[in-house]
Amino acid sequence: MQISVIIPVANAADTLERTIQSVTAQPYEAIEILLIDAGSTDGSGALADRLAARDDRIHVTHEVHTTVLAAYRAGVAQAKGDDIVFLNGGDILSPDILKEFISYRAQNMQPDVFVFNMDYAGVHAHQRQEGINGSFRDAEQWFHALFAATGTGFSLKNKIFKRELITKVFDHHSDTDDEISATYDALKAATAVVMTDTVGVAIAVDDSPLHRHFGAQSMTDVTARLTLLERVKQDFPSLVSESAEYLLDGILETGYQLTLSKGKLGKNVKNYDKQLRTYHDAHKRLLTADHIPAEKKWAYVLYCQVPALYAKVYPALRDSE
């Protein structure tokens, strides 16, 4: 059984080799590594070629892909593995996570999606993210588990997908950059999901909520969480409260990034701020309901009224989860 690891190469000259080493060091040999050069300008493409020359498991494609999800789609189209892993340059795959995945297969568990815990490199070293152990055959149960665990969520990068499953999902999402919806569709289409509390990947520090710079992707993420809430209302009404809290988390994270970036965004900050408040007000009943933790409701009020103070207290709120 072969596993394909897909890594977009986007100006990752300082971190790419470390990411590759975390994959090649896995105690499992049947791996192919697909590096999709997404138009790097820092020499990452040439570095990818040099790494491929050293290890025949590494294959490089030089194409210009404007988004990470587009690069993932290109990698899936080329992949020969039975299962797919997604990383970004700078992410670190934990030493034994593929071995653990194979062990589940050896126990006759055949998950369509294998979900592992994740952390942020150098950010939460003092406090481990929360994961869940379990084998699920019911979609409502595994979605409940995903909402409950802070270390899992709707990222592609802490999951191993059957190639046939994720190929169908990407065919459906051929013109979008909504990673949350792609992950949701893959999980919804699955028939079996295994989750482990083992930390399987350390995400690059620049992708952590406390270090990520505000950008278009920040608003895309909140919009995707809003779309997710609408879909959960239709598909799993019993999980609406969890999905609403997930939306509020996205609003609070993006509000924090926006507050720190005000000097760089100039007048545009008002438009982004207005959009966040519009999202909140449209679902105010759900986002202020009794099931929402009081500290998160007060955090949103603080963001609206004293953003400078909010920027100081939000990291403590994140660490308290």
Describe the structure.
It is a single chain. With 321 residues, the chain is an alpha/beta fold. 50% of the residues lie in helices and 17% in strands. It contains 14 helices and 9 strands. Strands 1, 2, 3, 4, 5, 6, 7, 8 and 9 form a 9-stranded mixed β-sheet that branches. Strand 2, helix 2 and strand 3 form a beta-alpha-beta unit. The longest helix is centred in the C-terminal third of the chain and has 21 residues, at 240-260. The radius of gyration is 20 Å and the shape is globular. It starts with a strand and ends with a helix. The model is unreliable at 123-127 (pLDDT under 50).
Features:
single chain; 321 residues; alpha/beta
